[in-house]
Amino acid sequence: MIQNAAGAERKAVPNGGIMLNGAAAADRAQAGSDQKEHDFFWTYTEEPHRTRRLAIIKAHPEVRKGRALATTDHNTNAGASQQVTKLCGPEPLTKYVVAAVVGLQFLCAYTLKDTSFWSWKFWAPAYVIGATANQNLFLAIHEISHNLAFRSPLANRLFAIFANLPIGLPYSASFRPYHLTHHKSLGVDGLDTDLPTALEAVVLDSILGKAFFCTFQIFFYAIRPMCVFQITFTWVHLLNLVVQLAFDFAVIAYLDSYKPILYLLLSSFLAGSWHPTAGHFIAEHYVYETVTPEARNPDNNIPVPETYSYYGPLNVLTYNVGYHNEHHDFPAVAWTKLPKLREIADEFYAPLPRHDSWVLVLWRFLWDKNVGITSRVKRKNGGRKVGGSSEKVAKVADWTPQEIEA
């Protein structure tokens, strides 16, 4: 774990060194070197993905093209040119996977309509099948939010509402502007709603606090964004709300049982709790012991890595969300193409820190005193809010592919 350096308050460092919050530095100076820290990793560096994206495009222009490239670069040999494939754009397979998983959840919900909620016969399938399926749908909606299921933005918005049905509560319409803001404002305090708040850092900075966070983290991800900034309520949000509530009530009325909806809601809760696939929530941007010793010292002006990839087998169930550096570098590349992107730009991704296990990520987050709620890189300035202004919502509701890649 990278630790903030003890000592006096540090001033801003050109080219992006890590800077301590002034109040935290003063408190630690008074309490001594053993004072427990409650501060994030503050930096003046630009988020790393845009810089790396531009470097990769320069080195591998085929990455951004929507069609195979002719051999026009005299610095590229013919063999490399033969490997060129189109990477950006929608993935047709996504809609079939979503339909299959939605159907699976409908079937499970129907099967359990007469099963006691408190029996293991209800909770076991909810954990093994339901949580895995709904985590898959969480990440399907994530994929769809980048317009990667269809070419039509409207088709993507409507399909996300369909994918939302087994989750039980409407969220797909709200997720998109908050998530796109996360991409445009990575680490920016007050804009990136993936960042824990200062209140969370104080209240949850203990083993019990971290256990509570991991158990109920789905609620933190659902409620926190609304506490950070408000987005404009649009017709898409209204449709999402009406369709979801109508579906829930129709299931209860038609099957004459509330158990199917309880199964779907429990599946969503478990998907964001102590479940192997839930490890990706923490693995993506929390700072772990995967940096060089030089980067631990802010005096060296080395930015702390703030995005981590995972290349393990759970990617099969989660739309390759483990390829997270790759995804942030190129949000317009669909999940099926991320391994190819990793292969093409291997010289950029091989040196980056990564996780080998999402289960180990959760275990270390709980028990490692050097990993916790404050293990995140934060910025005071920069970024861009998406969908937060009523007068601009029509212009930012649907980004062009060029804007998403920028």
TrEMBL record:
EC number: 1.14.19.17
Key words, A-Z: Lipid metabolism, Membrane, Oxidoreductase, Sphingolipid metabolism, Transmembrane, Transmembrane helix
Transmembrane regions listed in the UniProt entry: 154-173, 201-223, 235-255
Pathway given in the UniProt record: Lipid metabolism; sphingolipid metabolism
Location, primary (coarse class): membrane
GO BP, one annotated term: ceramide biosynthetic process
Pfam families recorded: FA_desaturase, Lipid_DES
Species whose genome carries this gene: Diaporthe helianthi
Membrane topology: Multi-pass membrane protein
UniProt similarity note: Belongs to the fatty acid desaturase type 1 family. DEGS subfamily.
Name of the protein this chain belongs to: Sphingolipid delta(4)-desaturase
Protein localization: Membrane
Residues in Sphingolipid delta4-desaturase N-terminal domain copies: 35-76
General function of this protein: Delta(4)-fatty-acid desaturase which introduces a double bond at the 4-position in the long-chain base (LCB) of ceramides.
GO molecular function: sphingolipid delta-4 desaturase activity
